[in-house]
Design goal:
The complex is a heterodimer. In chain A, 37% of the residues lie in helices and 12% in strands. The N and C termini of chain B lie far apart (51 Å). Classes of the chains: A alpha/beta, B alpha+beta.
Chain lengths: 264, 437
């Protein structure tokens, strides 16, 4: 994916979210200053006060969900001015936690939180940025892993296309020789359904994978569910773990809704 | 009369999406709004009905910079609800995690977000050309804060190792000793930046008498971030459980984040400057030295000095971090520590002092361990009303001083500096969580 510019113009943007993916960019402390020498970061509101909101961009990074009309307008503008658009983080790629309960109408939520009868919020159902405009690259993670961001940035700078493994977390977990949270501990672990790249962080700390990076490629959901059920894990327990990060995506990709929410 | 407006559509160098709108008619300020248009994510609805074991992993995602703080506040509240008393080691490790979070957050804010204003740069990247050593040190300090969070929490952003009742995996003695050495090594260069900052002028338009609120530290004689009661600079003290009566929340049309005031109607400030106002006399060692250097006449009512107060706290965090490492190194090594407990219905409040001020979490769970009520009040939401008050007084001061000549560009910069001094965390403030029974 050659960007054809010696010192590419770059923008980093956040829609609605926790700013965790932009923070991970700032967290590249050892590399940040060198990176800033190789690219011209012209629009990054979180880190600068003087920004060029009109410049054509060689690369734009976008985190977050679309949760307001303003988010959608911003996203369309960013797409229009960028050659290469990269989604960073699970919110932008899959919807993440903000999209977890989209079945509840916004008015109900608004009343519950703000205790106000007058609707004054700019609010729409939270959906991933990738639902609205075409993206050239997607980097999931909640938050993204620093090493993955640096690989993308570097690949774009040298004019190649970065490749990422689409294997499940289990693959990395095995290489770390962790005890399996399902086989040995009878827990609902989302590792077999979730994209690797995190180095199996959770199981390496003795905690089951929560699925924060979104689905792996060609996952066998039915076999996973059978594996949990065979261990006498209740539907309630399975749903509890699986409906957090990736339930909407898992459902879209073939898992029956009843299976995720079963027993409720 | 000529009316004019000063608008900052998108406030830079802060976390999240917000802007400032000021309407001036003649020489009077008619309207000051801190517009918060970050989208709402309704975390309360996401939590209601969830099992309490899911709470930490969800609520930490309210905000990335503050993820460790939300985590510890949530675990503290849930453990109170369940009647769990965390043993010493868990208490200490969480303390170290919070210190790491504060080191990271303060280093980022003081050096990368606030100092460029005082030195005349638009970003830390621009500042790096003229002050390479200082910027490199600041990044190193921030990295150390992250490394501590990574070691204790399992990840620098959104910790995974932090559980109700303890930790999945404990750091080894070798790792703790390494962190201790690195903390110690930052102390001298940090004091050098205190000397640099001492030479900078603090503009007088940030001055304004203010009410401050901070928690009374759990330790009777020292400066600490975890507290046992809510105290105000007017001498009042309230139990943590009464926080909803002390802090009155209300909605305003121009903000997706709620505003707060005391029962008296007064707005107030929470954060580093508030903590130094109430407990600054408890600082010891180099932190006391930093306080005396940066506040030679004691605490001052100027919000711009909140940046300096954060620098004082940074010194405290480094020294206290070394102490906590020593306490942990004295304990026998273990691979993990998780308290046994029974699930029961209950309600608990967790309140801690985090980089931007006092953070409250409250949860009620039923017999099956499901969340029936959740409430989070963040420091930034509490500070918003006071921020607008300070913005107004700064504009009035500048118009009084410079008359109609008051340069709009200068007004804008001044307003940005005030807002930034509060170190607002807009993600936090908008993602208020509240579910009433």
């Amino acid at each position: 994916m050659p960007i054809g510019n010696q010192k590419p113009k770059v923008g980093i943007f956040g829609l609605t979210g926790c700013a965790g993916d932009q923070l991970q960019v700032l967290n590249c402390e050892d590399e940040l200053l060198r990176l800033a020498e190789r690219m011209d970061i012209v629009d990054w509101v979180m880190a600068r006060s003087q920004n060029d909101h009109n410049a054509r961009l060689d690369v734009a990074f976008v985190e977050g969900v679309v949760a307001t009309q303003r988010d959608l307008q911003n996203l369309r503008t960013i797409r229009g001015r960028s050659k290469v658009l990269v989604a960073i983080g699970t919110c932008a790629v899959w919807g993440g936690l903000p999209a977890m309960r989209n079945e509840i109408p916004r008015e109900v939520l608004e009343k519950e939180v703000y205790k106000s009868d007058r609707p004054f919020l700019d609010t729409v159902e939270a959906r991933p940025a990738t639902d609205f405009v075409p993206f050239d690259l997607m980097l999931p993670g909640c938050p993204i892993e620093r090493h993955e961001f640096l690989r993308v940035a570097n690949a774009l700078l040298v004019g190649t296309t970065p490749e990422f493994f689409k294997t499940p977390v289990c693959w990395e977990c095995k290489t770390k020789e962790n005890l399996c949270r399902v086989v040995h501990c009878n827990e609902v672990c989302c590792g077999a359904m979730t994209r690797s790249g995190c180095g199996a962080r959770c199981p390496s700390h003795g905690v089951a994978c929560s699925g924060c990076r979104g689905p792996a490629e060609e996952t066998n959901y039915d076999a996973n569910i059978t594996m949990f059920k065979d261990r006498k894990i209740s539907w309630v327990e399975i749903a509890r773990k699986m409906e957090n990060f990736s339930a909407p995506v898992w459902m879209k990709m073939g898992l029956e809704e009843e299976e995720v929410r079963g027993g409720r | 009369m000529d009316a004019r407006t000063v608008t900052i559509p998108h406030l830079g160098r802060v976390e999240g999406h917000g802007g400032i709108f000021v309407k001036i008619v003649g020489d009077k300020v008619h309207e000051v709004n801190m517009d918060i248009y970050e989208g709402s994510r309704y975390y309360e609805a996401l939590l209601k009905g969830k099992h309490f074991l899911e709470v930490q992993g969800i609520i930490t995602r309210v905000c990335a910079i503050c993820s460790a703080n939300h985590t510890v506040a949530a675990l503290t509240a849930l453990e109170k609800a369940l009647g769990i008393e965390p043993p010493d080691r868990i208490h200490r490790l969480r303390g170290l995690l919070l210190l790491g979070a504060t080191i990271e957050s303060h280093a980022l804010h003081v050096f990368a977000l606030a100092l460029p204003d005082f030195l005349g740069f638009d970003s830390v990247l621009g500042m790096a050309a003229k002050f390479p050593a200082e910027v490199a040190f600041a990044l190193k300090l921030k990295q150390l804060g992250n490394r501590i969070q990574e070691l204790i929490g399992g990840r620098a952003v959104h910790p995974v190792n932090t559980l109700v009742g303890g930790f999945g995996k404990l750091p080894s003695k070798a790792e703790l000793a390494k962190v201790r050495a690195e903390l110690l090594a930052t102390l001298d260069p940090l004091m050098a930046t205190v000397s640099l900052v001492k030479t900078l002028d603090v503009p007088e338009w940030g001055q304004q008498p203010t009410v401050y609120v901070a928690l009374r530290p759990y330790d009777r004689s020292f400066f600490r971030f975890r507290g046992v009661a809510i105290c105000t600079s007017k001498g009042e003290e309230y139990p943590l459980e009464q926080y909803r009566d002390v802090i009155r929340e209300f909605t305003v049309e121009h903000s997706h984040a709620k505003h707060s005031a005391l029962a008296s109607g007064e707005t107030y400030m929470v954060g580093s400057l508030a903590r130094l106002k109430l407990w600054g006399d408890r600082l010891v060692g180099r932190a006391k030295e930093a306080f005396d250097t940066l506040f030679p006449k004691g605490h001052v009512d100027n919000i711009l000095t909140n940046n300096w107060a954060q620098l004082v706290e940074l010194v405290h965090c480094i020294e206290r971090g070394v102490e906590v490492c020593d306490l942990l190194l004295d304990m026998p090594e273990a691979k993990s520590e998780l308290v046994d407990y029974e699930v029961r219905a209950g309600r608990g409040v967790g309140a801690i002092e985090v980089p931007r001020g006092t953070l409250f979490h409250e949860y009620e769970i039923d017999d099956d361990g499901r969340v029936v009520m959740a409430n989070v009040i963040t420091p930034t939401a509490q500070n918003l009303a006071n921020t607008e008050r300070d913005l107004r007084s700064a504009v009035e001061f500048l118009i009084r001083r410079d008359g109609k000549k008051a340069d709009p560009a200068k007004l804008r910069t001044s307003l940005e500096m005030i807002a930034r001094a509060y170190d607002p965390c807009i993600s936090c403030s908008v993602h208020v969580v509240r579910t009433d029974e």
